[in-house]
Each structure stands twice: as C-alpha cells, then as structure tokens.
Amino acid sequence: MNMIGACWMRRSLGEPVSALLIDSDNCTIAGGWNGILTKWSSEGDRQWSAQLPDRIASISIDENGIYACAGLHLVAVDSDSGAILWQHALEGSADEVTTFSGLIYATSSVYDIEHNDFIDSAIWCFDSKGEKVWETHMDERPWTMVVSNNQVILGLGRPMMGAAIVDNNGALTYQTLDSESPVTTGIDSVNGVIFGHANGDVTTMEGKSMEGLGDAISNICAASSELITVSKDREVVTLNANFEPQWASEIGTISTISTGFSVENKPTIWVGIQNGINGQLNVIHQESGEIISSMECARINSIASSSDMIVAGDEQGELFVWQDEMFRRRLTSTESNDNDEHRQTMRDRLKALRKR
Fold first, then answer.
1. Contact by Cβ (8 Å): 108, 121
2. Alpha-carbon distance 135 to 275, whole Å?
3. Per-residue model confidence (pLDDT) at position 37
4. Cβ-based neighbours of 66, under 8 Å, separated by 6 or more
5. Predicted confidence band at 201 (pLDDT cuts at 50, 70, 90)?
6. Distance between CA atoms of 202 and 209, rounded to whole angstroms?
7. Rounded Cα distance, 235 and 118, in Å
8. Which own/partner pairs from 281-284 qualify as long-range (CB within 8 Å, at least 24 positions apart)?
9. What is the dihedral angle through the alpha carbons of 65, 70, 75, 76, rounded to the nearest 10 degrees?
10. C-alpha 167, offset from chain centre
11. Kind of pairing, strands 202-204 and 208-210?
12. Most CB contacts within 10 A, which of 68, 102, 160, 218?
C-alpha cells in the first residue's frame, strides 16, 4: 500500500517537527524546533500559528488552553486564537508539561557541562491564569511525569532514582522501584503506571515486571490491558499482561514509537526508524510483530494518536495524518493507484487557493 497516498491529509509546519498532540476534537497541534506552534482543524484547515521562544519539547491541553514547554519557558496559548496568554521562564530547560484538575504541572532541569550531569531539577505548578501555586526542587531529574489514579507521579534519575508522588502542596513522597537503574520513561495504563529503566528493566509501582539486558527503554506503549510494547535502541519487544515477552524484533535505530488504531480488529504500533538523515515509518501488528505497511520519509521525530487518527511529523517539517477508516480501506484494497500522492498534493493546493 502507498502509505503517503493513503494519508487523509498532509501539511507542512515549515520547520522540523518536535512535538505533536491530537485534541478531543481531532484537531492537530504541532510544535517545531524553532518554536512554531500550529493548529489545524479536524477538516485539515490551518486555524492559527504562534511563535514561541524556542524549540517545543512537550504539549498538553485542557479546557483553558494549550501549554507548551519551549526552551526555558512554559507558555500558555489560547486554543481558539493562538494568542499567547502567559509565559514563565523556568530555572533551566522546560522539559515536560501536563495538566491535572485545572492546574498545569511542568518539570525543568539544569545541566552543568563541566560536571556532565544535571545539578538541579524542579516541578512547577501554575493555575490557569498563570499564577505560580508552588515549585519544588530536587537533585534528581524527573525523566517522566505521569498522571495516574488522581496523582502526579515522577520517574527519577540519579541519585535517588525510583518514583516520587507529588501532593497538592508540592511535597514529594519517594517510593523505591524494583530496579537499581534510573527511570528513562513511563506511562499510565489500564495496568497502572509502567516505568522503563536505563538498564532495560520494566517496573510498576508494585514491583519488577521484566528484567532488562542492558539496553535502555526509550518508549512504552500500552493500548490495551493485554499487550505492552517497549522500544530500545534498535529493538521492539511486546509483552503480555503478565509482562512476559511475546515477540521481539530488531528493526533499526528507533526514533519514536506510538500506539495506533486497530487494523483488522487488532491493535497496531507505529514505529519511526532512523537511517542517517533518512527515515522510515512502519505499521506493525502488536500481537504478532508483522509489518503490515511502511513508507520511506525523513526522520520521524514525533507521533501522536487518538482512537481514529494518527499524525506523524518528520525532520523536514512534514505532517502525515491518517484516518482509520480510510487507512483500512486502502490497506485492504486490491487496486493500486500511483497517482494518489499527486492527487493529494493537488487537493492541498486547491485548499490553499480557497484560503480555507
């Protein structure tokens, strides 16, 4: 199948894509390496673009606005107009942002080049108007921030490592994890919080789930209660609900990975693979590891998904958006049409001429 021809839409951010989000209305919000933040409607029309201070590392959203970590700053943007509502310079780089109960949480870190290590990190809490509620500093860098079971939970690096539960006043309750390795990533799932570690361990708040073999876990995907997929440097591994390996595949240097919509009533994972300056996007059946579709592209930097849409952004600033019904129809079609990509380009040009 021609995956580019199967795109529901293609758009250009104008600079390398660094972060993506699909909101509850299936609007696409993309952030770039030079600070551009752009929103497209579910119909594919560009609604606005805003210039933020620096590279956008993380995007979150609630009913009050869109929030982005942009270089040293946490920035709030009006979802309807793209107007900047407020921004704050954090201490060090702004790393990750999430929203919970009407509040905005962001993590930051300070890196010391001479010591070749992080020397200070913090978690910040702001209200929707941009007023700081509190800030809490720590020696460890929070490599991941997860909202689970009405709690904000941090996955930590050295020296403390383990996890930290954040209360409403910013106090941290540290919890050891069943691994002696720093946390590198984490997600909330139907099975609770799942952490990946620098040595390849996979843990939960209750204990160790899989013992690693030395390669750091870079991403975790858990689309259902039955299957969990983790990625390492070059390998993808899928585990069952008991964290037992079901299959593993070394597919190349992995740039990013995401869950996807179901194909043939089976969950999929979408994996970006880097090959020098070039890239590849693979769609894989999560149950079997079978590659069901792929395409050549620039390096895929970010993938976001909803129940019926997937958007991938690459190093050249291109965004590829697939809609589940159209993707499945093209996948099962026996007809090949080499003009699909050209036709999509013409549709985009016509939309631009109509100034939609």
1. yes
2. 41
3. 98
4. 21, 29, 37, 39, 59, 60, 76, 77, 78, 79
5. very high
6. 5
7. 28
8. 281/3, 281/312, 281/320, 282/251, 283/3, 284/236, 284/249
9. -10
10. 25
11. antiparallel
12. 68
Query: pLDDT of 274-300, one tens digit each?
Result: 988 799 999 999 999 999 999 999 999
Q: What kind and span of H or E run contains 346?
A: helix 340-353
Average pLDDT over residues 99-126: 87
Q: How far apart are CA 146 and CA 186, in angstroms?
A: 7
Strand boundaries in 288-328, DSSP class E: 291-298, 300-305, 309-314, 318-323
C-alpha span between 231 and 246 (Å, rounded): 14
| pLDDT tens readout for residues 270-279 | 999 998 879 9
Strand order in the sheet with 151-156: 142-148, 151-156, 163-166, 172-175
In terms of Cα–Cα distance, which of 344, 354, 348 is closest to 2? 344
What token pair was written down for 148? 């689970």
> 3-state DSSP: the chain helix, strand, coil percent, rounded to 5?
5, 55, 40
Contact 157, 118 (CB under 8 A): yes
pLDDT tens, residue by residue, 129-174: 999 999 999 999 999 999 999 999 999 999 899 999 999 999 999 9
Which of 167, 174, 169, 137 lies closest to 152 in space, CA to CA?
167
Residue 180, number of CB atoms within 10 A of its CB: 11
**The Cα angle at residue 150 between residues 146 and 155, in degrees rounded to 5:** 25
Taking CA atoms, 74 is separated from 92, 151, 152, 168, 303, in Å, by: 11, 21, 18, 20, 22
Pair type for strands 309-314 and 151-156? unpaired
Residue 111: pLDDT band with limits 50, 70, 90: confident
76 CB contacts (<8 Å, ≥6 apart)? 64, 65, 66, 67, 84, 85, 86, 87, 104, 128, 130
Largest separation between any pair of C-alpha atoms in the chain: 60
Pairing status of strand 103-112 against strand 117-126: antiparallel
The order of strands in the sheet holding 84-89 is 56-62, 65-70, 73-77, 84-89
Strand partners, 35: none
